[in-house]
Design goal:
Helices cover 57% and strands 5% of the residues. The chain is mainly α. It has a domain at 6-222: Rossmann fold (3-Layer(aba) Sandwich), CATH 3.40.50.11890. The strands form 2 sheets. A 4-stranded parallel beta sheet has the order 2-1-3-4, sandwiched between helices. A 3-stranded parallel beta sheet has the order 5-6-7, sandwiched between helices. The termini are far apart. The structure holds iron/sulfur cluster (SF4).
């Protein structure tokens, strides 16, 4: 096969942008047959993502989601032409601060990597390979190295500045952003999370955040206006309300929320939170889930065989093989820790209160909140247990993303504690969330099937058996239970059973 010189080709951003511009022209009421006919013209990798997103039962939400991303990419393109600064941020930096500037616009590296993996022929492989070819180590994180690898080819959209908010939470994320800023010769602004989560640590983080605001103001050449901050903060508050509406709907058993909505939620959080398009996307998700509930339509069926929460990341390649496959096998996706940013309404009294609220949001972004915690395994575990209980999840899965050394380092401890405190089993997988070559989807499906068949169905059977034994024990059993004798269930018994799993 002839070798492809990547520098002769377009970068990831432009390729994704071109594809979205075409898909954005589809009619929102496109039929099943029309979708199939059009998508068949596209390469197989693109087909597998768009076929999943353009499923008839997802259409209103998918179109709102694609509109959000299209406006996001459009504005970034226009920003360059209009002389505005494009600021590249990582996913754990809340974009609303940049949205409040008139002369700047945010782009998020991990969202661009994900879009490339999702919709491009060959996914993000050529950009990852280019970065590896430059001598970068393979323990870099594909979530950002794919997009930044594309930037390094010199054929992609280059940012005017880079913000890094991973110091304190993820070394590889911080390093690649810093490396690219040096190579491109653009300013690099850091937001560091201190090691303490007490009052002192929070005050210090607040000072770091305000100092970042001042440095960005200098760089953009504009002082943030209170009315712009308030306009954005009001919209952030609407997004927050919708986020919790969706959380509550997801917790229903069976759940009316489609598996892919977890991704729609946090992709919105990482790009257009605090913008009308972000509100519209989240509202479309909530409306669709409510309508599912009213007409008793449950994407994973009425008899869910498992309700897993992914305790950090899921997989972002092959949507048909992941989201659709889970639903068609009765597995109701409860989402993942990227959803665990627990936004709070911002007090819009004045500029200070708004910036305080935005700093608080930055503190609570996923990864910063868990991996940048003063006691990493405990902060991570607390959020997982809270989400397991709040969403009525009945198992958890660790996808074993290969770059994530810090989560691997405490995984067995976290798994033991999940079993002890939430009483649910955890499946451990291995792979790379953005690179299919590490663990192909067919292997992931096999592992999930074995887990559901051997653990989840076994638990359901034992629960059913227990119920039958209790009801057989009948009134005599009730007396024994009241006396704490044989037949009396105990929390230890339940947890012991989970341990066996
Ligand atoms: S997935 Fe893991 S390695 Fe990648 S940026 Fe997040 S914490 Fe870092």
């Amino acid at each position: 096969m002839a070798e492809v010189d990547i520098r002769e080709h377009q970068g990831l951003y432009e390729r994704v942008y071109s594809l979205f511009s075409i898909v954005g022209k589809l009619r929102p009421d496109i039929s099943e047959e029309e979708t199939e006919g059009i998508l068949k013209l596209l390469p197989p990798d693109t087909y597998r993502a768009l076929r999943s997103m353009l499923r008839q039962d997802l259409l209103p939400a998918t179109f709102a989601f694609m509109r959000t991303l299209q406006v996001w990419m459009d504005e970034a393109f226009r920003a360059k032409e209009e002389g505005k600064k494009v600021v590249l941020v990582p996913f754990n930096f809340p974009p609303e601060l940049i949205h409040a500037f008139e002369g700047a616009f945010p782009l998020t590296s991990e969202v661009l990597s994900t879009l490339g993996v999702v919709v491009l022929e060959g996914q993000g492989e050529r950009y990852w390979d280019y970065a590896m070819g430059m001598g970068l180590p393979d323990h870099m994180c594909s979530s950002n190295t794919i997009e930044l690898g594309s930037v390094l080819t010199g054929k992609d959209f280059a940012p005017d500045a880079i913000v890094s908010s991973a110091p304190g939470s993820c070394d590889v994320n911080s390093s690649i952003h810093e490396f690219v800023s040096h190579l491109l010769g653009v300013p690099h602004f850091m937001l560091e999370k201190p090691g303490d989560s007490d009052r002192r640590g929070r005050e210090l983080f607040g000072r770091h955040y305000l100092s970042l605001v001042r440095r960005l103001e200098e760089f953009v050449g504009e002082e943030l206006k209170e009315e712009n901050l308030r306009r954005v903060a009001d919209k952030c508050n609407e997004c927050t309300d919708l986020y919790y509406d969706l959380w509550e709907l997801r917790s229903r058993v069976p759940t009316p929320v489609p598996a892919i909505f977890a991704l729609y939620t946090y992709a919105t959080r990482f790009t257009m939170w605090g913008r009308d398009e972000g509100i519209e996307c989240l509202r479309a998700c909530v409306d669709l889930a409510r309508s599912n509930l009213e007409r008793e339509y449950f994407p994973a069926g009425k008899e869910e065989v498992a309700r897993p929460l992914w305790i950090y990341l899921p997989y972002f390649f092959d949507f048909l093989g992941f989201f659709d496959w889970m639903e068609s096998h009765g597995i109701a996706n409860m989402g993942d820790v990227l959803m665990c940013c627990f936004p709070q309404r911002i007090d819009t009294t004045d500029r200070d209160s708004i910036l305080d609220g935005m700093a608080e949001a930055a503190w609570n972004m996923p990864m910063t909140r868990q991996m940048g915690g003063d006691f990493m395994s405990k902060r991570w575990l607390d959020d997982v247990v809270y989400a397991v209980k709040g969403l009525n999840a009945d198992c958890t899965i660790y996808c074993g993303h290969h770059s994530c050394k810090q989560t691997w380092s405490v995984f067995s401890q976290v798994r033991r504690e999940i079993t002890r405190t939430a009483g649910v089993p955890t499946l451990c997988l291995q792979g790379d969330s953005w690179i299919r070559r590490m663990t192909p989807m067919a292997v992931i499906q096999e592992e999930l099937t074995a887990f559901v068949d051997n653990v989840m169905r076994g638990r359901a059977g034992r629960r059913e058996g227990k119920r039958t034994r209790r009801s057989r024990a009948g009134r005599g059993g009730e007396a024994a239970a009241a006396a704490g004798g044989e037949g009396a269930p105990s929390p230890e018994e339940d947890i012991g059973e989970a341990d066996k799993d």
